[in-house]
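Lecture 7 notes: from sequence to structure.
We start with the chain below.
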Amino acid sequence: PVGTAMLFRAFPPHERAKGAAILMIPMVVAPASGPVLGGYLVEFHDWRWIFLINIPVGALGFVFAGLFLKEETQPNPGRLDVPGLLLASTGLAALMYALAEAGDRGLDDPRVLAFCVVGAAVLIVFTIVELRTSEPMIDMRLFKNRLFATANGVQLIAFGGLMGGLFLLPLMLQSPATRGLGAFDSGLATFPQAIGVVMMVQVSSRLYPRIGPRRLLGLGLLGVTATTFAFVFVDVGTDIWWIRGIMFARGGFFSFILICLQTATFATISPADMGRASAISSAGRQVGASLGVALLATVLTSRLAANDTSLLPGADSVGAVDAFHEAFIVASVLTAVGAVAALLISDKDAAVSMGRVTASEAEEGVSPVAVGH
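Predicted structure tokens for the same chain:
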């Protein structure tokens, strides 16, 4: 949240697509490099190094930030919202636990239903409390801004399918019942997604002001839907280069999504509200990814049980592959729903980020809907 707020305070709205294109490269390449480096350390050295390697990396980041980041403080930063923190963490944890247990117990299990109800109830209370708090942890009032609310809704759904699909593939590749690849080879198979993002992110930033977020985001989500569904046709005998090719194409479409969400979401947010807005967006992205992983893990677990198989050595590989295929179908449905939701985004609302009106013109009412009234 801090990085996003700093970047977008530095760039005027019509230049944020270019700024987002720069931001996307480390945001995508770094996480994609993790499975490759981690797989190498686990497979050829010692698993403890996957934790130890973070010490020099963190120290280097700390030194770099101290030397090159310009300090910027806000006159009224606010206080820690302890009730909001406790309610949000409790409600989300209850929902995550319910989803995690649903795979083994079923959605109609009393424990699963109880935690679902408790989690939903606590999050409703959280929303009420935040709306009545002068300095909330999550400023729910920002959702009155139509563009901001719609973009965050699309992001929540889309990242569930995006990250859920990315969670499934390494499991399918490494499971002894399916492919049985080592951790390093699995990381190399997923890394082309990052290459696809890097190669297309500059193209995406140039297309954004010409096409607009509505169509570009929809195209990106449809592309990710198609490439996620392509894994339904992957089995134990599929050439690994086909898998890498699918991931590369997935990354190219993923870049459209990232540029649009990073740019359009904050198009009509004032600099004073940027920190709170980026906190909401970051939290929504993480919650969407976590819910997607939990949901698809539940689907995979339940389908493995229905097919009377597992991911262990000697298990029925046909049944295991079928279970993965069904989970990938659910992941593709999630991103398809996100593509439909993207139709609710108005290019007119995002005109200031496309350079079609200036920020001052938007504030003066040249495009009244763009400022959320």
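Points to note: The CA atoms of residues 1 and 279 lie 5 Å apart. The radius of gyration is 22 Å.
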